[in-house]
Amino acid sequence: MASTLALLPFFLSQDLTTKEALSGIFGSISLATWVCLLIPQLIENYQNDSADGISLVFLFVWLLGDLTNLAGALWAGLVPTVIALAIYFCIADFVLISQCMYYNNKNARKARRQQSVVSTGSEQEPLLSRRRSSDNTGLPGSHRRTSALSARSVDGSLVKIEEEQISMARTWFNNTISILGVIALGVVGWGIAYQTKVWTPTPEHGDTPQATEVAFGAEVLGYFSAICYLGARIPQILKNHKDRSVEGLAPLFFMLSMMGNTTYGAQILFHSQDREYLLTNLPWLIGSIGTIFEDCIIFVQFHVYNSRKDSDSAVE
């Protein structure tokens, strides 16, 4: 945000008010955030060769929200850039859902093959187990070897915990750098858009009664879209609680989501605090604030379940 404030004096000298500039900058940061939003989870799934951590119900409800958002934009006859962005969101959702379904099917087939191999060799396993146990019983030095192995196991667990902590610290550092990069991208993008007249400040009190009347159905779709965005994270929160794990989820995905909703709400509030304007944008404000609250719950789950994972590793 320091880069945002540093650029304000230059743009304010060009007949822009502080509120107009901040509204435009926050809107541009929000746009850059939404464009980059799904990339961290796509990378996380690819690196893990799995999508077990993310709830498909979450993604399908989110897709429904994006589809109704696109329908509302088309119905309202919004500018082509808004419609193009809504189309991009839907395509990105389809890509992530397709990736998750691919890994789920792939790993399910792999699990069935492994189960088949295990069941084939299970008839010989009890005999082999008895032989191994009888071979070790009463041998001189066997207890000393067991104690040495236990000590080595404890040392290995401590090393593993230390490596996981270093890896987690590196991940959060990289995520912070990514967040700052997205903010810089949004600020620079807004500056270019303003200088090239692609973006111009919108008057607070526009006289558009006809457009408002035509867009009534689009406003209904906007409410439904906001409800979908608000309810989408509930299946993910429940899945995390059931599994007692957030493994497979990309923290940056939810960090970008929180930043996107925060800057989107800031864009609306800095544009105008007029009662009628706020009521018009109320469904999107509610959706943004509610989603931020749900993202906070997921971050609490990240903290709790990762801490529990470290404790379990120490016990082992």
From TrEMBL:
Main location: membrane
Transmembrane segments: 25-43, 55-76, 82-103, 172-194, 214-232, 252-270, 282-302
GO biological process: vacuolar transmembrane transport
Membrane keyword on record: yes
Region (Disordered): 114-148
Membrane-protein topology: Multi-pass membrane protein
GO molecular function term, any single one: basic amino acid transmembrane transporter activity
Localization (cell): Membrane
Source organism, top-level taxon: Eukaryota
UniProt feature, compositional bias: Polar residues: 114-123
GO cellular component: lytic vacuole membrane
Reactions the enzyme catalyzes: L-histidine(out) + L-arginine(in) = L-histidine(in) + L-arginine(out)
Alphabetic keyword roster: Membrane, Transmembrane, Transmembrane helix
Signal sequence region: none
Family, similarity comment: Belongs to the laat-1 family.
Name of the molecule in the record: Vacuolar membrane PQ loop repeat protein
Naturally occurring in which organism (per UniProt): Coleophoma cylindrospora
